[in-house]
Amino acid sequence: MPGPSPEELPPDELRAQVRRWCADHVPAGWREHQTGASPEEYVRFQRRWFDELSAAGLAFPHWPREWGGGYDLARQAVVFEELARADAPRLSLYFVALHHAASTFLEAGTSEQRARYLAGIKAGAVWCQGFSEPDAGSDLAALRTRAVRRGDVYVVNGQKIWASGAAHAQHCLLLVRTDPSAPKRRGISYLVMDMDSPGVLVRPTRQITGDEHFCEIFLTDVEIPVANLIGPENDGWRVAQTTLSAERGTTMLELAERLTAGLHRLLAEAAHPGSADTVIGDHLARLAREVQALRLLARRAITRSPAELAAGAHASVVKLYYSELLQRLTACGMELAGLPGQRAAQRPAGAEWESGVWLLDHIASWEWTIPGGTSEIQRNIIAERALGLPREPAV
What we know:
Blueprint: H1 11-25, H2 30-34, H3 39-55, H4 73-85, H5 95-108, H6 111-122, E1 127-130, E2 146-150, E3 153-160, E4 171-177, E5 188-194, E6 200-204, E7 215-225, H7 236-250, H8 252-270, H9 278-301, H10 306-311, H11 314-337, H12 358-365, H13 375-386
Parallel strand pairs: 1-4
Antiparallel strand pairs: 2-3, 3-7, 4-5, 6-7
Helix pairs in contact: 1-4, 4-8, 5-6, 5-7, 7-11, 8-9, 8-11, 9-11, 11-12, 11-13
């Protein structure tokens, strides 16, 4: 009889299997190879790595079984933990596709949309997210990008900012205003936009780390088929909560394991001769407790459905805790590194805060308190949904 499939293996056997796979497949010296890489080289590297993970069934363990996943909570944790321990490159180019887009289609898409777009993601399609605007970042419901229906298409005009990976994406999760006379949250619709549509202009934004990961998207009379509407017209705010819940909650399982690997790196550096310091030791012990608490919170989050995450505050708690803990951990790394660690360096493409240089990692950590809702917004959500505090009246 055939043996069990990976999602059915006992967790210890799965761990051993993933560990062996990582030993054979994680690219040696990938940071050095990606330092100074051109955008084209970065995309090629990410595509090769995605293909390898996909072939091994490790790119989407969190998806339903019928779509190639089916791993339960314990087995998902094993996969992400072993990839982090092996210092495997993160699939930064595919993060929106594998998590945000997939969660949205699984929860709110039609069967035709799931068949088309989930299959496309498995084939390597890159997605970006067109939510934030110049005057609608934290207050996302204030977005002004307008979509007017004309027959079987929407004609869209407006601007989006902070669209991660938009320069390389084939598709965009796009929030637009379809009823300007309705209350802010009730006049929004959720569309899928093909990035090669006429009228779409993408302009990368250079960051302090030297990356151009974030982009602006300018939309001029862009035609989007009505068939690309996700959920009912003017119900996009509700659908968007599924996307944001994935960003604030379920993706944190992988990120928590990555942060655990960062803690291990800190502990190894603190163990070097001459680095003994009682204050640093106490700080590291506190960080170790906080990282373990984050792992438990993240695992609890993915036991909830996307609808439960969207309705409650748990996802906001996890996102807030992760983003600020990341800042504290990388700041501790800078303190350990001392003045030699303040040297100028170039960050490997796609490394985000795992560059290997604490200065760059700490700078990069600050972006995590902004995407998916700033820390201030997360605190408001927690106050209202978890603590039952009244919403502050509009001035």
